[in-house]
């Protein structure tokens, strides 16, 4: 286990002294004592600082070293703090290093480990050093040849690139030799060995070559890869059509495993996936899972160009590949959705995730720029900021230059840096030069943390027919950072007249209007734009499509919000306006509860309910869109709107409001449950998924209002549903609403789902979101007893995320109990997991980092829990960084 506590700074970057041109790896795969023989051809770099050749190593047993075929002398190298340093490599040199490792004891799931007795690797970010000594940094690119020796029961032996040879060794074991023609950093190395079945297909590429596509899964899952294969083919085609980027390999492989710390990994030619992002059929995957699989398959495939062909110079540049690839993934997923209203639902969901998870990160103790300046453990920086805010920053180039301009910039970037390791500045410069633009100010997006605020004021001069828009940016000052500077912000706006129509936008000095949505490019603290020929009362529609990752403040009255929610031609902004209205309504319930502890007398204002009803019944809007916008804002979204977070009050307000809405719109909801019930065999399709979403949304309001028919229907969807979306949708409603039938449903599903790891995770997650019922066991205790259930394993990251992370992050008042029992569970599990898997314990621990924002009774206990953990000795570097930043 790594206990390094050193902080690494971006400013300290130094180029390596040596290149490794080729590496030949031979693995003798034995679960508890694998022998790795690495032979590197090491070449000194021109202009190097010294002749020292530095390699990293962790949890390795060194067996032997040879230099140019001769056993090395101990004065030729030194071992020190995880580093192996050869003192003087002045000439091209062959170095052979033999190490011994123990995959079976590797519970960190970093490096080479076992999953259900199969060998699997995960090398990003620094897992390769747990396999062999190597300059384990992304700017050392080598060509790999890999030989695998394995017991004869091992059916499948895989590594990156092309299969050169395979067969049986004289002693009866099996072997395979792989060669990857593309130079790559060590974090993209992968090997897989074990018992798998494969689903194969072929695809014709636009260069007239044919590529073999393979998806490997554990036996029994062969019929669950149809969707993933379809997504892979769509992704390959999309990258050809949209960006002219072709698959550069003869063979592209995906392997699914149940033991994985993160989502998936883009190893060159051999992607390794968390099984939940591969396997799908009507019995294990919900509509949302189908959509997530499409996104993640796309994401990892797109890395082949943005990540693998051009990689990152150092880990501070992580967003170079991740922000860009998330953006590409989002564009792909959106293009796969037929209608405009389906596309906008995807955008609404992505922005909601950004606001409820990235915004709090960016205002809390872990706030960092998308290109961080320092870290103590890089695995802690695979964050919403680097990924999702990074993607928004990339999207702004497209907003400024259009799709064609963006494509030109991307092509220029790939042309300049193909086969090498680049920086975020390199990307920005390529974009700027391809589009003849000055993007020096745009660089601030990479160096400034915090969510910028833009407050906007408008003024209509009826006699002059002018409409002025004044913007004022403000960026939060963060400790240890220079005073924030104004950013370059593309702000898309439209203007509605009093009939709710978009008006043509003509800026002062322009001969003619230019469109009805325009991008204002902010670049100073305060700026003013004047629109002319505005002859009817105007209303600004601000930040259309979420054109920049900022918080826009504009004082809008309830009436104006209602007007926008009903009329804005920008469907994204309609959803925005409605969400603001919902928050206002919930706020009223919160105030009422604070006064009287009983919100039953209150009802949301008429205009809100009328708008709700109008949208619910507006057949011109897709069911998916209606389902998304009429969902109450998540509790996390409400937390973001509050100065002090009071989980119990917020939950009570939501419940009271849901109940009122359910009572009031009963007939419409009943109608939706009927008309949105999809008949026949299950098929994943965004339109049908939208209907199912609207059906369950309606059902949840009905059940919240105590409607007996709704309860009966919930039971029916669970019993009779022919797909997991229906069954799980019903189960979640029952458990979250604490219905009496819930225990029976949970028992039935634990029996029916016991052999499917993916379903066990769902079963755990549903229970993490449970609501306590008076007189029964509190949810915290229920979670404790689930941890003892044979279906739960604390060693499995998916189980931990589903049960514990969900509970800590979204359990609301069930987790934030006044007796501190939730925090006690947090302490115990975080410390327990840290003793074997620091990446997972650190991710779990982040659920308390925003403790300062909670009501005092809770925040003092949250602080104590963090401090207690931070006082323990032997914490991993990962967990140490999280808890220390949280309390200091
Ligand atoms: N590069 C992967 C992806 O986003 C993420 C792998 C991160 N793994 C880790 N242990 N930090 O597709
Ligand atoms: Zn990625």
Question: Could you describe the 3D structure shown?
Answer:
The chain has 888 residues and is α+β, with helices and mostly antiparallel strands. Among the domains are: 1-195, tricorn interacting facor f3 domain (Immunoglobulin-like, Sandwich); 313-446, Neutral Protease Domain 2 (Neutral Protease, domain 2), CATH 1.10.390; 460-475 and 485-548, Aminopeptidase N, middle-beta domain (Immunoglobulin-like, Sandwich); 555-666, no CATH class. 40% of the residues lie in helices and 20% in strands. The protein is built from 25 helices and 31 strands. Strands 6-5-9-3-2-12-15-14 form an 8-stranded mixed β-sheet, with no helix packed on it. It has a 5-stranded mixed β-sheet with strand order 17-18-19-21-20, covered by helices on one side. A 4-stranded antiparallel β-sheet has the order 10-11-16-13, with no helix packed on it. Strand 25 and strand 26 form a beta hairpin. The structure holds arginine and zinc ion. Arginine (ARG) is lined by residues 124-125, 261-262, 264-266, 299-300, 322, 379, 382, 839. Arginine (ARG) binds at residues 124-125, 261-262, 264-266, 299-300, 322, 379, 382, 839.
CATH topology of the domain at 1-195: Immunoglobulin-like
Name every ligand kind in the structure.
arginine, zinc ion
The number of helices is 25
Q: How many DSSP E strands?
A: 31
Mean pLDDT: 97
| Alpha carbon gyration radius | 28 Å
* Lateral strand order in the biggest sheet: 6-5-9-3-2-12-15-14
Helix content: 25-40%
- For the record, the CATH architecture of the domain at 1-195 stands as Sandwich
Rounded to the nearest angstrom, the distance between the terminal CA atoms is 25 Å
The CATH class of the domain at 1-195 turns out to be: Mainly Beta
Strand content: 15-25%
Give the full name of the CATH homologous superfamily of the domain at 1-195: tricorn interacting facor f3 domain
Morphology call: globular
The unreliable regions are none
Helix and strand composition category: alpha+beta
């Amino acid at each position: 286990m790594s206990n390094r506590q050193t902080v690494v700074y971006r400013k300290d970057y130094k180029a390596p002294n040596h290149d490794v041109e080729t590496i030949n790896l031979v693995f003798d795969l034995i679960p508890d004592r694998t022998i790795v023989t690495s032979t590197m051809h090491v070449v000194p770099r021109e202009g190097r600082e010294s002749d020292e050749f530095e390699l990293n190593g962790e949890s390795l047993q060194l067996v032997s070293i040879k230099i140019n075929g001769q056993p090395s002398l101990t004065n030729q190298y030194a071992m020190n703090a995880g580093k192996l340093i050869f003192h003087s490599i002045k000439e091209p040199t062959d170095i052979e290093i033999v190490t011994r490792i123990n995959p079976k004891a590797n519970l960190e799931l970093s490096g080479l480990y076992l999953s259900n007795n199969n060998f699997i690797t995960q090398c990003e970010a620094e897992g390769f050093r747990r396999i062999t000594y190597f300059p384990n940094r992304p700017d050392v690119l080598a060509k790999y040849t890999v030989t695998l020796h394995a017991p004869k029961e091992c059916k499948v032996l895989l590594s990156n690139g092309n299969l050169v040879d395979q067969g049986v060794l004289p002693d009866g074991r099996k072997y395979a030799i792989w060669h990857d023609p593309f130079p790559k950093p060590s974090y993209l190395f992968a090997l897989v060995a074990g018992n798998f079945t494969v689903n194969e297909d072929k695809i014709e590429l636009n260069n007239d070559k044919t590529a073999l596509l393979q998806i490997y899964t554990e036996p029994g899952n062969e019929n669950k890869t149809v969707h993933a294969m379809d997504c892979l083919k769509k992704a390959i085609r999309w990258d050809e059509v949209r960006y002219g980027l072709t698959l550069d390999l003869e063979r592209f492989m995906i392997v699914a495993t149940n033991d994985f710390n993160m989502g998936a990994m883009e190893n060159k030619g051999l992607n390794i996936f968390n099984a939940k992002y591969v396997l799908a059929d009507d019995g294990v995957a919900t509509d949302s899972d189908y959509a997530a699989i499409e996104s993640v398959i796309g994401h990892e495939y797109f890395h082949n160009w943005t990540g693998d062909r051009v990689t990152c110079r150092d880990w501070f540049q992580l967003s170079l590949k991740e922000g860009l690839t998330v953006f590409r993934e989002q564009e792909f997923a959106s293009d796969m959705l037929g209608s405009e209203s389906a596309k906008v639902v995807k955008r609404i969901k992505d922005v909601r995730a950004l606001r409820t998870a990235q915004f709090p990160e960016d205002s809390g103790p872990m706030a960092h720029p998308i290109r961080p300046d320092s870290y103590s453990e890089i695995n802690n920086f695979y964050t919403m900021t680097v990924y999702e805010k990074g993607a928004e920053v990339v999207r702004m180039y497209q907003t400024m230059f259009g799709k064609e301009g963006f494509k030109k910039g991307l092509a220029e970037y790939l042309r300049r840096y193909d086969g090498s390791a680049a920086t975020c500045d390199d990307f920005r410069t390529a974009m700027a030069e391809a589009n003849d633009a000055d993007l020096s100010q745009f660089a601030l997006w990479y160096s400034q943390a915090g969510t910028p605020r833009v407050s906007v004021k408008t003024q209509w001069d009826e006699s002059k027919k002018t409409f002025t828009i004044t913007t004022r940016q403000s960026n939060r000052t963060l400790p240890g950072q220079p005073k924030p500077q104004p950013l370059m912000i593309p702000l898309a706006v439209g203007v509605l007249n009093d009939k709710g129509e978009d008006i043509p936008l003509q800026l002062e000095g322009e001969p003619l209007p230019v469109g009805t949505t325009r991008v204002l490019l902010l670049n100073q603290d305060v700026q003013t734009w004047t629109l002319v020929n505005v002859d009817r009362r105007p209303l600004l529609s601000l930040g259309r499509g979420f054109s920049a990752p900022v918080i826009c403040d504009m004082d809008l009255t309830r009436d104006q919000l209602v007007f926008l929610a009903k009329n804005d031609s920008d469907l994204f902004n309609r959803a925005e306006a409605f969400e603001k209205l919902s928050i206002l309504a919930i706020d009223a319930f919160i105030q009422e509860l604070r006064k009287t502890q009983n919100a039953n007398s209150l009802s949301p204002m008429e205009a809100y309910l009328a708008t709700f009803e109008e949208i619910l019944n507006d057949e011109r809007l897709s069911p998916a869109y209606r389902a998304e916008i009429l969902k109450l804002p998540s509790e996390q979204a409400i937390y973001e709107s509050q100065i002090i977070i009071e989980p119990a009050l917020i939950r009570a307000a939501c419940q009271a409001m849901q109940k009122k809405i359910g009572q009031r719109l009963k007939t419409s909801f009943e109608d939706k449950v009927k008309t949105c019930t999809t008949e026949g065999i299950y098929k994943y399709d965004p339109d049908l998924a939208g209907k199912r979403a609207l059906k369950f949304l309606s059902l949840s309001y009905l059940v919240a209002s105590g409607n007996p028919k709704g309860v009966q229907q919930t039971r029916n969807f669970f019993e009779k549903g022919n797909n997991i979306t229906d069954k799980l949708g019903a189960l979640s409603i029952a458990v979250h609403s604490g219905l009496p039938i819930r225990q029976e449903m949970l028992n039935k599903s634990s029996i029916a789902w016991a052999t499917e790891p993916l379903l066990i995770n769902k079963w755990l997650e549903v229970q993490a979101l449970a609501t306590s019922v008076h007189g029964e066991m509190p949810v915290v205790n229920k979670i404790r007893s689930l941890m003892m259930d044979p279906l739960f394993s604390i060693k499995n990251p998916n189980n931990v995320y589903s049960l514990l992370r969900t509970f800590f992050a979204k359990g609301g008042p069930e987790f934030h109990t006044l007796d501190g029992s939730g925090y006690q569970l947090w302490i115990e599990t975080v410390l327990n997991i840290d003793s074997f898997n620091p990446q997972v314990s650190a991710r779990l621990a982040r659920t308390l980092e925003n403790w300062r924002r909670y009501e005092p009774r809770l925040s003092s206990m949250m602080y104590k829990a963090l401090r207690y953990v931070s006082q323990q000795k032997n914490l991993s570097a990962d967990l140490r960084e999280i808890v220390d930043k949280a309390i200091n």
